[in-house]
Protein backbone atom coordinates (compact mmCIF):
# COMPACT_ATOMS: atom_id res chain seq x y z
CA UNK A 1 0.00 0.00 0.00
CA UNK A 2 1.47 3.36 -0.97
CA UNK A 3 0.50 6.98 -0.54
CA UNK A 4 -1.39 7.96 -3.69
CA UNK A 5 -0.36 10.93 -5.82
CA UNK A 6 -2.08 14.19 -4.96
CA UNK A 7 -2.09 15.31 -8.56
CA UNK A 8 -0.81 14.39 -11.98
CA UNK A 9 1.52 17.34 -12.26
CA UNK A 10 4.06 17.38 -15.06
CA UNK A 11 7.00 15.07 -14.31
CA UNK A 12 10.23 16.86 -13.53
CA UNK A 13 13.22 16.36 -15.78
CA UNK A 14 15.31 13.20 -15.56
CA UNK A 15 17.88 12.81 -12.81
CA UNK A 16 21.48 12.08 -13.74
CA UNK A 17 23.34 11.39 -10.46
CA UNK A 18 26.94 12.52 -10.17
CA UNK A 19 29.48 9.83 -9.47
CA UNK A 20 32.00 10.03 -6.64
CA UNK A 21 34.94 7.93 -5.55
CA UNK A 22 34.29 5.19 -2.99
CA UNK A 23 30.69 5.01 -4.23
CA UNK A 24 28.41 2.05 -3.75
CA UNK A 25 27.06 0.22 -6.77
CA UNK A 26 23.96 -0.79 -4.86
CA UNK A 27 20.80 1.08 -5.88
CA UNK A 28 18.43 2.55 -3.34
CA UNK A 29 15.44 0.28 -2.84
CA UNK A 30 11.84 1.38 -2.60
CA UNK A 31 10.22 0.33 0.67
CA UNK A 32 6.45 -0.15 0.36
CA UNK A 33 3.98 -0.30 3.20
CA UNK A 34 2.47 -3.72 4.04
CA UNK A 35 -0.87 -4.48 2.43
CA UNK A 36 -3.87 -3.47 4.50
CA UNK A 37 -7.41 -2.37 3.93
CA UNK A 38 -8.06 1.36 3.90
CA UNK A 39 -10.33 1.19 6.93
CA UNK A 40 -7.45 -0.24 9.00
CA UNK A 41 -5.27 2.79 8.33
CA UNK A 42 -5.59 5.71 10.76
CA UNK A 43 -3.74 8.24 8.63
CA UNK A 44 -5.73 10.74 6.60
CA UNK A 45 -3.59 10.68 3.45
CA UNK A 46 -5.08 9.12 0.34
CA UNK A 47 -3.82 5.57 -0.05
CA UNK A 48 -3.53 3.21 -2.96
CA UNK A 49 -2.91 -0.54 -3.02
CA UNK A 50 -1.18 -0.41 -6.39
CA UNK A 51 2.38 -1.78 -6.45
CA UNK A 52 4.36 1.00 -8.12
CA UNK A 53 7.35 0.92 -10.40
CA UNK A 54 7.99 4.52 -9.41
CA UNK A 55 7.15 6.84 -6.56
CA UNK A 56 4.12 9.08 -7.17
CA UNK A 57 3.74 12.49 -5.59
CA UNK A 58 2.32 15.87 -6.44
CA UNK A 59 5.08 16.42 -9.00
CA UNK A 60 4.49 13.19 -10.85
CA UNK A 61 6.28 9.83 -10.92
CA UNK A 62 9.98 9.52 -10.12
CA UNK A 63 12.25 6.53 -10.51
CA UNK A 64 13.42 4.95 -7.26
CA UNK A 65 16.30 3.08 -8.86
CA UNK A 66 18.90 5.59 -7.68
CA UNK A 67 22.57 4.87 -7.34
CA UNK A 68 24.68 6.46 -4.64
CA UNK A 69 25.97 9.89 -5.56
CA UNK A 70 26.50 13.28 -3.95
CA UNK A 71 22.84 14.06 -4.71
CA UNK A 72 21.27 10.78 -3.59
CA UNK A 73 23.35 10.08 -0.47
CA UNK A 74 21.21 9.79 2.66
CA UNK A 75 23.93 11.25 4.87
CA UNK A 76 24.95 14.85 4.17
CA UNK A 77 28.52 13.84 5.06
CA UNK A 78 28.56 11.68 1.94
CA UNK A 79 26.74 14.26 -0.16
CA UNK A 80 26.63 17.98 0.49
CA UNK A 81 29.61 18.03 2.86
CA UNK A 82 31.78 15.35 1.23
CA UNK A 83 34.52 17.77 0.16
CA UNK A 84 34.96 18.91 3.78
CA UNK A 85 35.18 15.47 5.40
CA UNK A 86 36.61 13.24 2.69
CA UNK A 87 40.00 13.00 4.39
CA UNK A 88 38.29 10.71 6.91
CA UNK A 89 37.34 8.20 4.20
CA UNK A 90 40.66 6.30 4.13
CA UNK A 91 40.20 5.55 7.83
CA UNK A 92 36.51 5.45 8.76
CA UNK A 93 34.81 4.18 5.60
CA UNK A 94 34.04 0.58 4.68
CA UNK A 95 37.18 0.74 2.59
CA UNK A 96 39.14 1.81 5.66
CA UNK A 97 37.77 -1.05 7.75
CA UNK A 98 38.65 -3.60 5.07
CA UNK A 99 42.13 -2.10 4.62
CA UNK A 100 42.97 -2.40 8.31
CA UNK A 101 41.55 -5.93 8.44
CA UNK A 102 43.90 -6.85 5.59
CA UNK A 103 46.79 -5.23 7.45
CA UNK A 104 46.08 -7.13 10.67
CA UNK A 105 45.70 -10.49 8.89
CA UNK A 106 49.02 -10.06 7.06
CA UNK A 107 50.87 -8.79 10.13
CA UNK A 108 49.62 -11.82 12.11
CA UNK A 109 50.92 -14.22 9.48
CA UNK A 110 54.29 -12.45 9.64
CA UNK A 111 54.21 -12.72 13.45
CA UNK A 112 53.59 -16.46 13.24
CA UNK A 113 56.62 -16.85 10.97
CA UNK A 114 59.00 -15.69 13.72
CA UNK A 115 57.66 -17.96 16.48
CA UNK A 116 60.21 -20.84 16.71
CA UNK A 117 57.68 -23.42 17.90
CA UNK A 118 55.51 -22.94 14.81
CA UNK A 119 57.74 -24.79 12.39
CA UNK A 120 54.92 -25.06 9.86
CA UNK A 121 55.36 -21.36 9.12
CA UNK A 122 59.09 -20.86 8.53
CA UNK A 123 60.68 -17.44 8.44
CA UNK A 124 59.82 -15.66 5.22
CA UNK A 125 62.45 -14.51 2.78
CA UNK A 126 62.88 -10.81 2.11
CA UNK A 127 61.04 -11.33 -1.17
CA UNK A 128 58.04 -12.91 0.52
CA UNK A 129 57.98 -10.19 3.18
CA UNK A 130 58.10 -7.55 0.44
CA UNK A 131 55.26 -9.30 -1.38
CA UNK A 132 53.06 -9.32 1.73
CA UNK A 133 53.90 -5.71 2.58
CA UNK A 134 53.01 -4.78 -1.00
CA UNK A 135 49.49 -6.16 -0.48
CA UNK A 136 49.11 -3.62 2.32
CA UNK A 137 50.86 -0.70 0.65
CA UNK A 138 49.11 -1.14 -2.70
CA UNK A 139 45.67 -1.97 -1.33
CA UNK A 140 43.12 -0.13 -3.48
CA UNK A 141 39.43 0.62 -3.74
CA UNK A 142 39.29 -2.08 -6.40
CA UNK A 143 40.75 -4.57 -3.92
CA UNK A 144 38.15 -3.58 -1.35
CA UNK A 145 35.43 -4.07 -3.97
CA UNK A 146 36.80 -7.55 -4.63
CA UNK A 147 36.50 -8.33 -0.93
CA UNK A 148 32.88 -7.13 -1.01
CA UNK A 149 32.17 -9.40 -3.97
CA UNK A 150 33.49 -12.36 -1.97
CA UNK A 151 31.36 -11.29 0.98
CA UNK A 152 28.24 -11.53 -1.17
CA UNK A 153 28.93 -15.26 -1.31
CA UNK A 154 30.23 -15.86 2.21
CA UNK A 155 27.85 -13.43 3.93
CA UNK A 156 30.74 -12.91 6.36
CA UNK A 157 32.89 -9.81 6.07
CA UNK A 158 36.00 -11.01 7.90
CA UNK A 159 36.02 -14.41 6.21
CA UNK A 160 35.85 -12.58 2.91
CA UNK A 161 39.13 -10.83 3.78
CA UNK A 162 40.76 -14.18 4.56
CA UNK A 163 39.61 -15.64 1.24
CA UNK A 164 40.77 -12.52 -0.61
CA UNK A 165 44.26 -12.87 0.84
CA UNK A 166 44.42 -16.58 0.01
CA UNK A 167 43.56 -15.77 -3.59
CA UNK A 168 46.12 -12.96 -3.79
CA UNK A 169 48.89 -15.06 -2.25
CA UNK A 170 48.56 -18.06 -4.55
CA UNK A 171 50.88 -16.28 -6.95
CA UNK A 172 53.72 -16.32 -4.43
CA UNK A 173 55.06 -19.85 -4.04
CA UNK A 174 56.52 -19.27 -0.58
CA UNK A 175 53.40 -17.73 0.94
CA UNK A 176 51.13 -20.16 -0.91
CA UNK A 177 52.53 -23.02 1.22
CA UNK A 178 51.10 -21.49 4.43
CA UNK A 179 47.76 -20.09 3.25
CA UNK A 180 45.86 -21.88 6.02
CA UNK A 181 47.77 -19.87 8.59
CA UNK A 182 45.94 -16.75 7.53
CA UNK A 183 43.47 -16.07 10.36
CA UNK A 184 45.15 -18.79 12.45
CA UNK A 185 43.37 -19.33 15.81
CA UNK A 186 41.54 -16.04 15.33
CA UNK A 187 37.98 -15.08 15.98
CA UNK A 188 36.63 -12.32 13.78
CA UNK A 189 36.83 -9.90 16.68
CA UNK A 190 40.57 -10.46 17.00
CA UNK A 191 40.82 -8.88 13.57
CA UNK A 192 38.00 -6.37 13.96
CA UNK A 193 38.99 -4.87 17.31
CA UNK A 194 42.52 -4.17 16.08
CA UNK A 195 41.18 -2.75 12.81
CA UNK A 196 38.81 -0.43 14.68
CA UNK A 197 41.58 0.62 17.05
CA UNK A 198 43.88 1.47 14.13
CA UNK A 199 41.05 3.31 12.38
CA UNK A 200 40.55 5.52 15.44
CA UNK A 201 44.25 6.04 16.06
CA UNK A 202 44.98 7.09 12.49
CA UNK A 203 41.85 9.24 12.35
CA UNK A 204 42.79 11.18 15.46
CA UNK A 205 46.50 11.55 14.61
CA UNK A 206 46.15 12.27 10.91
CA UNK A 207 42.96 14.33 10.76
CA UNK A 208 41.30 15.36 14.00
CA UNK A 209 44.22 16.48 16.18
CA UNK A 210 45.69 18.73 13.47
CA UNK A 211 42.35 20.53 12.99
CA UNK A 212 41.83 20.84 16.74
CA UNK A 213 45.28 22.38 17.03
CA UNK A 214 44.45 24.86 14.28
CA UNK A 215 41.44 26.04 16.28
CA UNK A 216 43.54 26.56 19.40
CA UNK A 217 46.25 28.36 17.46
CA UNK A 218 43.62 30.62 15.86
CA UNK A 219 42.15 31.41 19.28
CA UNK A 220 45.59 32.18 20.70
CA UNK A 221 46.17 34.58 17.81
CA UNK A 222 42.86 36.35 18.44
CA UNK A 223 43.66 36.47 22.16
CA UNK A 224 47.10 38.05 21.60
CA UNK A 225 45.91 40.50 18.95
CA UNK A 226 43.10 41.74 21.20
CA UNK A 227 44.71 41.30 24.60
CA UNK A 228 44.25 44.97 25.50
CA UNK A 229 40.90 45.61 23.79
CA UNK A 230 38.51 46.29 26.71
CA UNK A 231 35.07 44.72 26.64
CA UNK A 232 32.02 44.87 28.88
CA UNK A 233 31.38 41.53 30.57
CA UNK A 234 27.89 40.19 30.98
CA UNK A 235 26.80 37.90 33.78
CA UNK A 236 23.17 36.76 33.71
CA UNK A 237 22.97 38.88 30.55
CA UNK A 238 23.56 42.08 32.54
CA UNK A 239 26.58 44.44 32.52
CA UNK A 240 29.40 43.21 34.78
CA UNK A 241 33.04 44.01 35.51
CA UNK A 242 34.97 44.70 32.29
CA UNK A 243 37.37 42.23 30.71
CA UNK A 244 39.25 42.25 27.43
CA UNK A 245 38.19 40.60 24.24
CA UNK A 246 41.50 38.76 24.07
CA UNK A 247 41.14 37.30 27.54
CA UNK A 248 37.71 35.87 26.71
CA UNK A 249 39.19 34.16 23.65
CA UNK A 250 42.07 32.90 25.80
CA UNK A 251 39.62 31.09 28.08
CA UNK A 252 38.45 28.90 25.21
CA UNK A 253 41.98 28.24 23.98
CA UNK A 254 42.95 27.00 27.45
CA UNK A 255 39.78 24.91 27.90
CA UNK A 256 40.10 23.24 24.53
CA UNK A 257 43.77 22.50 25.08
CA UNK A 258 43.00 20.57 28.26
CA UNK A 259 40.47 18.40 26.44
CA UNK A 260 42.89 17.97 23.56
CA UNK A 261 45.45 16.69 26.06
CA UNK A 262 42.95 14.27 27.60
CA UNK A 263 42.09 12.93 24.16
CA UNK A 264 45.72 12.35 23.27
CA UNK A 265 46.25 10.41 26.51
CA UNK A 266 43.49 7.88 25.93
CA UNK A 267 45.10 4.46 25.55
CA UNK A 268 43.95 2.79 22.34
CA UNK A 269 43.57 -0.85 23.35
CA UNK A 270 43.57 -4.12 21.48
CA UNK A 271 43.03 -7.81 22.25
CA UNK A 272 44.10 -10.94 20.41
CA UNK A 273 43.00 -13.79 22.65
CA UNK A 274 40.70 -15.91 20.51
CA UNK A 275 37.04 -16.83 20.70
CA UNK A 276 36.39 -16.02 24.37
CA UNK A 277 39.64 -14.44 25.52
CA UNK A 278 41.37 -17.58 26.82
CA UNK A 279 43.56 -18.65 23.86
CA UNK A 280 41.66 -21.95 23.87
CA UNK A 281 42.46 -23.04 20.31
CA UNK A 282 45.98 -21.63 20.48
CA UNK A 283 46.89 -23.75 23.50
CA UNK A 284 45.52 -26.94 21.96
CA UNK A 285 47.40 -26.43 18.69
CA UNK A 286 50.73 -25.28 20.21
CA UNK A 287 50.72 -25.90 23.97
CA UNK A 288 54.36 -24.87 24.42
CA UNK A 289 53.89 -21.33 23.08
CA UNK A 290 53.38 -18.49 25.55
CA UNK A 291 50.33 -17.16 23.73
CA UNK A 292 49.47 -14.27 26.08
CA UNK A 293 53.01 -12.96 25.62
CA UNK A 294 52.84 -13.41 21.84
CA UNK A 295 49.48 -11.60 21.71
CA UNK A 296 50.83 -8.71 23.76
CA UNK A 297 53.88 -8.43 21.50
CA UNK A 298 51.68 -8.47 18.41
CA UNK A 299 49.28 -5.79 19.65
CA UNK A 300 52.19 -3.58 20.69
CA UNK A 301 53.80 -4.05 17.27
CA UNK A 302 50.77 -2.31 15.77
CA UNK A 303 51.28 0.72 18.01
CA UNK A 304 48.42 -0.18 20.34
CA UNK A 305 48.15 -0.92 24.07
CA UNK A 306 47.31 -4.46 25.13
CA UNK A 307 44.17 -5.49 26.99
CA UNK A 308 44.73 -8.96 28.54
CA UNK A 309 41.34 -9.33 30.23
CA UNK A 310 38.64 -9.73 27.60
CA UNK A 311 35.91 -12.06 26.40
CA UNK A 312 35.35 -12.43 22.65
CA UNK A 313 35.42 -8.69 22.09
CA UNK A 314 37.69 -5.99 23.38
CA UNK A 315 35.61 -4.32 26.07
CA UNK A 316 35.43 -0.92 24.29
CA UNK A 317 35.94 1.00 27.52
CA UNK A 318 38.69 3.04 25.90
CA UNK A 319 36.31 3.94 23.08
CA UNK A 320 33.78 5.23 25.59
CA UNK A 321 36.48 7.35 27.20
CA UNK A 322 37.66 8.66 23.84
CA UNK A 323 34.16 9.55 22.66
CA UNK A 324 33.26 11.16 25.99
CA UNK A 325 36.38 13.33 25.75
CA UNK A 326 35.47 14.23 22.18
CA UNK A 327 31.97 15.19 23.36
CA UNK A 328 33.46 17.48 26.00
CA UNK A 329 35.77 19.13 23.45
CA UNK A 330 32.68 19.65 21.28
CA UNK A 331 30.69 21.06 24.22
CA UNK A 332 33.36 23.67 24.84
CA UNK A 333 33.30 24.58 21.16
CA UNK A 334 29.51 24.92 21.26
CA UNK A 335 29.97 27.35 24.15
CA UNK A 336 32.46 29.30 22.04
CA UNK A 337 30.18 29.29 18.97
CA UNK A 338 27.29 30.67 21.01
CA UNK A 339 29.41 33.34 22.68
CA UNK A 340 30.81 34.58 19.37
CA UNK A 341 27.30 34.48 17.88
CA UNK A 342 26.22 36.76 20.72
CA UNK A 343 29.18 39.10 20.28
CA UNK A 344 28.34 39.40 16.58
CA UNK A 345 24.74 40.18 17.53
CA UNK A 346 25.96 42.92 19.90
CA UNK A 347 28.10 44.37 17.13
CA UNK A 348 31.41 43.58 18.86
CA UNK A 349 32.49 41.65 15.78
CA UNK A 350 31.86 42.40 12.14
CA UNK A 351 32.23 39.69 9.51
CA UNK A 352 34.11 40.04 6.25
CA UNK A 353 31.85 39.53 3.28
CA UNK A 354 32.47 37.33 0.29
CA UNK A 355 31.59 38.46 -3.21
CA UNK A 356 28.46 36.74 -4.45
CA UNK A 357 27.50 35.33 -1.07
CA UNK A 358 23.90 35.81 0.09
CA UNK A 359 22.85 36.09 3.73
CA UNK A 360 19.08 36.08 3.29
CA UNK A 361 16.81 35.25 0.36
CA UNK A 362 14.64 38.29 1.14
CA UNK A 363 16.78 40.70 3.23
CA UNK A 364 19.74 41.82 1.11
CA UNK A 365 21.56 43.53 3.98
CA UNK A 366 22.05 40.38 6.08
CA UNK A 367 25.53 39.02 6.93
CA UNK A 368 24.61 36.08 9.12
CA UNK A 369 26.95 34.20 11.50
CA UNK A 370 26.34 31.02 9.53
CA UNK A 371 29.72 29.42 10.20
CA UNK A 372 29.18 29.42 13.95
CA UNK A 373 25.58 28.28 13.52
CA UNK A 374 26.65 25.44 11.23
CA UNK A 375 29.33 24.47 13.71
CA UNK A 376 26.91 24.45 16.64
CA UNK A 377 24.37 22.38 14.72
CA UNK A 378 26.89 19.80 13.57
CA UNK A 379 28.43 19.54 17.03
CA UNK A 380 24.98 18.69 18.37
CA UNK A 381 24.54 15.96 15.76
CA UNK A 382 28.06 14.69 16.50
CA UNK A 383 27.50 14.55 20.24
CA UNK A 384 24.26 12.65 19.82
CA UNK A 385 26.02 9.91 17.87
CA UNK A 386 29.13 9.87 20.04
CA UNK A 387 27.00 9.72 23.19
CA UNK A 388 25.26 6.58 21.96
CA UNK A 389 28.59 5.00 21.04
CA UNK A 390 30.10 5.75 24.43
CA UNK A 391 27.09 4.42 26.34
CA UNK A 392 26.37 1.37 24.22
CA UNK A 393 29.78 -0.03 23.30
CA UNK A 394 30.95 -1.06 26.81
CA UNK A 395 27.81 -3.20 27.19
CA UNK A 396 27.74 -6.66 25.62
CA UNK A 397 25.74 -9.71 26.74
CA UNK A 398 27.87 -12.43 28.34
CA UNK A 399 30.97 -13.11 26.24
CA UNK A 400 29.61 -11.00 23.37
CA UNK A 401 26.61 -10.11 21.30
CA UNK A 402 26.52 -8.53 17.87
CA UNK A 403 25.06 -5.16 18.80
CA UNK A 404 28.47 -3.50 18.81
CA UNK A 405 29.14 -4.53 15.21
CA UNK A 406 26.52 -2.35 13.56
CA UNK A 407 27.13 0.50 16.03
CA UNK A 408 30.87 0.59 15.32
CA UNK A 409 30.14 1.18 11.64
CA UNK A 410 28.83 4.59 12.70
CA UNK A 411 32.05 5.92 14.21
CA UNK A 412 32.48 8.08 11.13
CA UNK A 413 29.15 9.83 11.70
CA UNK A 414 29.99 11.46 15.02
CA UNK A 415 33.59 12.10 14.10
CA UNK A 416 32.63 13.36 10.64
CA UNK A 417 30.15 15.90 11.97
CA UNK A 418 32.77 16.97 14.52
CA UNK A 419 35.31 17.59 11.77
CA UNK A 420 32.75 19.49 9.73
CA UNK A 421 32.00 21.67 12.75
CA UNK A 422 35.68 22.35 13.45
CA UNK A 423 36.19 23.56 9.91
CA UNK A 424 33.12 25.79 10.14
CA UNK A 425 34.40 27.34 13.35
CA UNK A 426 37.81 27.96 11.78
CA UNK A 427 36.17 29.56 8.78
CA UNK A 428 34.08 31.76 11.04
CA UNK A 429 37.09 32.87 13.09
CA UNK A 430 38.83 33.84 9.88
CA UNK A 431 36.00 36.22 9.00
CA UNK A 432 35.89 38.09 12.31
CA UNK A 433 36.75 41.79 12.48
CA UNK A 434 36.77 43.51 15.87
CA UNK A 435 34.55 46.60 16.12
CA UNK A 436 36.38 48.56 18.81
CA UNK A 437 34.05 51.55 18.49
CA UNK A 438 31.06 49.41 19.44
CA UNK A 439 32.94 47.86 22.35
CA UNK A 440 33.91 51.29 23.64
CA UNK A 441 30.35 52.58 23.25
CA UNK A 442 28.97 49.86 25.52
CA UNK A 443 31.63 50.46 28.15
CA UNK A 444 31.01 54.22 28.23
CA UNK A 445 27.34 53.62 28.92
CA UNK A 446 28.04 51.43 31.95
CA UNK A 447 29.85 53.46 34.58
CA UNK A 448 27.99 51.48 37.23
CA UNK A 449 30.53 48.67 36.77
CA UNK A 450 32.96 50.79 38.84
CA UNK A 451 30.80 50.19 41.90
CA UNK A 452 32.75 46.99 42.54
CA UNK A 453 36.26 48.50 42.85
CA UNK A 454 34.95 51.53 44.80
CA UNK A 455 33.21 49.46 47.48
CA UNK A 456 36.22 47.14 47.67
CA UNK A 457 38.58 50.09 48.39
CA UNK A 458 36.07 51.43 50.90
CA UNK A 459 36.22 48.10 52.73
CA UNK A 460 40.00 48.35 52.90
CA UNK A 461 39.88 51.70 54.64
CA UNK A 462 37.13 50.84 57.05
CA UNK A 463 34.28 52.88 55.54
CA UNK A 464 31.06 51.48 57.08
CA UNK A 465 28.50 49.71 54.87
CA UNK A 466 30.39 50.20 51.59
CA UNK A 467 28.36 47.64 49.65
CA UNK A 468 25.08 49.12 50.81
CA UNK A 469 26.17 52.67 49.94
CA UNK A 470 27.11 51.64 46.37
CA UNK A 471 23.92 49.64 46.04
CA UNK A 472 21.93 52.75 46.93
CA UNK A 473 23.88 54.77 44.34
CA UNK A 474 23.72 52.32 41.42
CA UNK A 475 20.96 49.73 41.68
CA UNK A 476 18.15 50.54 39.25
CA UNK A 477 19.44 54.08 38.65
CA UNK A 478 21.16 55.82 35.78
CA UNK A 479 24.85 56.09 36.65
CA UNK A 480 27.11 58.56 34.87
CA UNK A 481 30.75 59.49 34.95
CA UNK A 482 29.84 62.59 36.94
CA UNK A 483 27.77 60.81 39.57
CA UNK A 484 30.55 58.26 40.12
CA UNK A 485 33.17 61.01 40.46
CA UNK A 486 30.99 62.97 42.89
CA UNK A 487 30.57 59.87 45.05
CA UNK A 488 34.33 59.21 45.10
CA UNK A 489 35.10 62.83 45.99
CA UNK A 490 32.91 62.53 49.08
CA UNK A 491 34.65 59.42 50.45
CA UNK A 492 36.63 59.60 53.69
CA UNK A 493 39.64 57.63 52.43
CA UNK A 494 43.33 58.49 51.89
CA UNK A 495 43.92 60.99 49.09
CA UNK A 496 46.12 58.59 47.10
CA UNK A 497 43.42 55.92 47.12
CA UNK A 498 40.83 58.52 46.13
CA UNK A 499 42.97 59.69 43.19
CA UNK A 500 43.45 56.13 41.98
CA UNK A 501 39.69 55.61 41.99
CA UNK A 502 39.15 58.87 40.12
CA UNK A 503 41.50 57.66 37.39
CA UNK A 504 39.46 54.50 36.85
CA UNK A 505 37.20 54.23 33.82
CA UNK A 506 35.25 51.25 32.49
CA UNK A 507 37.94 50.93 29.78
CA UNK A 508 40.82 50.66 32.26
CA UNK A 509 39.13 48.52 34.91
CA UNK A 510 40.22 45.19 33.43
CA UNK A 511 42.46 43.76 36.16
CA UNK A 512 44.99 41.20 34.90
CA UNK A 513 43.04 40.43 31.73
CA UNK A 514 45.69 41.82 29.37
CA UNK A 515 48.46 39.65 30.78
CA UNK A 516 46.23 36.55 30.88
CA UNK A 517 45.43 37.00 27.20
CA UNK A 518 49.04 37.57 26.18
CA UNK A 519 50.38 34.49 27.97
CA UNK A 520 47.72 31.92 27.06
CA UNK A 521 49.89 30.57 24.25
CA UNK A 522 52.36 29.39 26.89
CA UNK A 523 49.59 27.47 28.62
CA UNK A 524 48.38 25.90 25.39
CA UNK A 525 51.90 25.03 24.31
CA UNK A 526 52.59 23.36 27.66
CA UNK A 527 49.38 21.35 27.55
CA UNK A 528 49.47 20.05 23.97
CA UNK A 529 53.17 20.35 23.24
CA UNK A 530 52.99 22.28 19.97
CA UNK A 531 54.85 25.42 18.96
CA UNK A 532 52.50 28.37 18.55
TrEMBL record:
Stretches assigned to the Fumarate lyase N-terminal domain: 123-380
Which segments constitute the Adenylosuccinate lyase PurB C-terminal domain? 396-510
Q: What is its EC number?
A: 4.3.2.2
Q: Which SUPFAM superfamilies match?
A: L-aspartase-like
Pathway, per record: Purine metabolism; AMP biosynthesis via de novo pathway; AMP from IMP: step 2/2; Purine metabolism; IMP biosynthesis via de novo pathway; 5-amino-1-(5-phospho-D-ribosyl)imidazole-4-carboxamide from 5-amino-1-(5-phospho-D-ribosyl)imidazole-4-carboxylate: step 2/2
Which reaction is this enzyme known to catalyze? N(6)-(1,2-dicarboxyethyl)-AMP = fumarate + AMP; (2S)-2-[5-amino-1-(5-phospho-beta-D-ribosyl)imidazole-4-carboxamido]succinate = 5-amino-1-(5-phospho-beta-D-ribosyl)imidazole-4-carboxamide + fumarate
Q: Which GO terms describe its biological process?
A: 'de novo' AMP biosynthetic process; 'de novo' IMP biosynthetic process
A single GO molecular function, which one?
Answer: (S)-2-(5-amino-1-(5-phospho-D-ribosyl)imidazole-4-carboxamido) succinate lyase (fumarate-forming) activity
Give the superkingdom in one word: Eukaryota
**Has keyword Lyase?**
yes
User: Transmembrane stretches, by residue range?
Assistant: none
Question: Cross-referenced Gene3D superfamilies, in alphabetical order?
Answer: Fumarase/aspartase (C-terminal domain), Fumarase/aspartase (Central domain), Fumarase/aspartase (N-terminal domain)
Q: Which UniProt keywords apply?
A: Lyase, Purine biosynthesis
Give the family per the record: Belongs to the lyase 1 family. Adenylosuccinate lyase subfamily.
**Which NCBIfam families does UniProt cross-reference here?**
PRK09285.1, purB
Q: What is this protein called?
A: Adenylosuccinate lyase
Instruction: List the source organism.
Output: Glycine soja (Wild soybean)
Ranked from the top, the taxonomy reads: Eukaryota, Viridiplantae, Streptophyta, Embryophyta, Tracheophyta
Amino acid sequence: MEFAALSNATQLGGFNPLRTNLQSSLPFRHASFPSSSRRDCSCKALLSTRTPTSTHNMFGPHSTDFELSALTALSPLDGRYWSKVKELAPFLSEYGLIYFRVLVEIKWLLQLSVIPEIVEVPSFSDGAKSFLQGLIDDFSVEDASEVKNIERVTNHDVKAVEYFLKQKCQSNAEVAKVLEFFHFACTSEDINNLAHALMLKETMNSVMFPVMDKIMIALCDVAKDNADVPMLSRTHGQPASPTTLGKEMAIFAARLSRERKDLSQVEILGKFAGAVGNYNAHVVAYPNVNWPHIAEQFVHSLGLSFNPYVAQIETHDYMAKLFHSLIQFNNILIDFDRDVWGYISLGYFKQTTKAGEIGSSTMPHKVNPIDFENSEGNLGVANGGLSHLSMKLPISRWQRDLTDSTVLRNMGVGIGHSLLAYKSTLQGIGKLQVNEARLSEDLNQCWEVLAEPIQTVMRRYGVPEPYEKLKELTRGRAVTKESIRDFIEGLDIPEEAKNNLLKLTPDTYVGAAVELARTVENVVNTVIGIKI
